[in-house]
Prior knowledge:
Strand order of the largest sheet of chain B: 1-2
Distance between the termini of chain A: 31 Å
CATH architecture of the largest domain in chain B: Orthogonal Bundle
Structural class of chain B: mainly alpha
Order of helices and strands of chain B: HHHHHHHEEHHHHHH
Mean pLDDT of chain B: 84
Largest sheet of chain A: none
Number of helices of chain A: 13
Largest sheet of chain B: 2 strands, antiparallel
Strand content of chain A: under 5%
CATH superfamily of the largest domain in chain A: MetI-like
CATH topology of the largest domain in chain A: MetI-like fold
Low-confidence stretches of chain B: 1-9
Largest interface: A-B, 105 and 103 residues
CATH architecture of the largest domain in chain A: Orthogonal Bundle
Order of helices and strands of chain A: HHHHHHHHHHHHH
Structural class of chain A: mainly alpha
Number of helices of chain B: 13
Strand content of chain B: under 5%
Helix content of chain B: 55-70%
Number of strands of chain B: 2
Radius of gyration of chain B: 26 Å
Oligomer: heterodimer
Distance between the termini of chain B: 39 Å
Number of domains of chain B: 2
CATH class of the largest domain in chain A: Mainly Alpha
Number of domains of chain A: 2
Amino acid sequence: MSSLRSAPGDRILRWSIIVVALVLSVGPVLYGILLSVRPFSAVLSRPLDLFPAFGELDFSAWTSALLPTSEGGFGLGQFVINSALLAVGSVALSLVVSIFGAYAAARLRYKGREVTNGIILAVYLFPGIVLAVPLFVMLSRIGLTGNLIGLLIVYAALTVPVALYMMRNYFLALPESVEEAAVIDGCSLPRMLVSVVLPIALPGVAATAIYVFMIAWNEYLFALLFLVQAPSLWTAPLGIAKLADFNVPVTVLLAGSFLVTIPVVVAFYLSQRFLVAGLTAGAEK
Amino acid sequence: MSSPARFSLPPRLTRRGRENLNGYLLSGPSLLAVVVVVVLPFLAVVVFAFAEIRLIDIPRLSLSNIDWTLDNFARAMQSGAFWGALWTTVSYATFTTIGSIGAGLAVALAMRRPFRGRGIARAALLVPYVLPVIAAATIWRTMLNTQYGVVNVFGVEVLGWERPIGFLSTTTMDIAGAPIPVALSTVIAFEIWKTAPLAFLFITARLQSIPGDIEEAAKIDGANSRQILGRIIMPQLRAVVLLVILLRFIWSFQSFADIYLLTRGGGGTEMMAIKVYTELITRADIGSAAAYGVLMSAILTVLLIAYVALSRRKEES
């Protein structure tokens, strides 16, 4: 075995990289969580006492972040609902549109396929901020700013390319023989898609749904542009950023941030295996 | 697929024709979404860039009453703000890319050999990437706060700094005689922290697909770990590293939320994307915002073409 061991210098280097990386990744998040369960006054007076004394534990930041303003809170509950509506709607719309395109890109050899794939990839890389200007003008013109529907359409359409790309990767990994057998048995294309392809591709579709959900749930720029005038429609990221401008105690901001984080983290780690496979599929050649 | 089905179908469509039709029907909705929300708006932004339009003009806007002009471009090119923003954006994207891919690569290589708890360690390393940007920015703003942030309190009380450092608002500070762009460096560090896990993910995925027997054979032939890394592992990683470099540069070049949420564009962090936003919202000048956007896309396109040309040439040699 000794020939398989690396030199001691290498091992020290390797382990220091791993430890430093872990501390840097997790440390700031733990710091935030610990602050969010301390009273704001204690954070101000003893900022270096990172670990709250047991008697000091205080979850009021979490409750007051969530409660509506009428009950003395900061109204984050409503923002979370807005974000959830938008994100779920975007996932549904985006997937319904892109799932067919993904199948076509993976399996059908139709004329113009390369061009279609090229356009969709180019869009994936195109700066969102540049589109923000005309989209803002167009949506204002037809009266869809200050409205969740306008934002929903934008999110769904802007996530179509990435959803299509991911699902195409999952479809490519499926054995084509099952579909061929179904076609030979006289199955029509729509029927085959629904009853043969989708059930096998379901984990991949679910992972794509989670990825699109994360994009819509975290999005900030378009929410800021379209909704800033309508506080009751603010999404959670926009709401927290706005509260930060109003000198809200940092413990509340942190509590709010983690409330927004929990759904994403749970979804991500539940689907991690498939998600990572879909995201990095192009890298494995 | 030699299909016996061919003869049982209506004769009007050949198999080729049927496949074309299905292709158009299935990819039609995706293409439509892209055309309506990306292609048409892009054409519109080009039109706006050559027009004198402000936010108050929106209700009366139509193609027939546009005042065509080159002023938006002329003003941008003549202003120091444009060149400043361009320079800031390029340095931000460059340093972020180097740091993010460098860190991702180092950690991926360090974690290449299995050890107990590697799965959990990997999951923990992804935390900054999975964290919503609003949460990440809130945590960093808290850490770096001048009054109670742990970094500044630690610096003043333990390291003996004279006064807290405004990490997110200080444009430059002399450190050992050299002017350091503090806020810009901070947003770069934030972006590296937030995006290195993605590079780590991509590189790890590639590492796992390298067959173990090549390495085994090299070891039997007496190669040491440096040689294995340099001659066997790194060449295999070349393509994926180039891919993540390209993606990270493009994404960082257009980054808005990550910077805006930390600094609101202050402290010398006004990048191109933030400039587009402030021209549009703060200055209410659609034409100028559009011109900045068009210039930004043009620069990105030129950089992309240069990159592709360079990497092609390298591959050939």
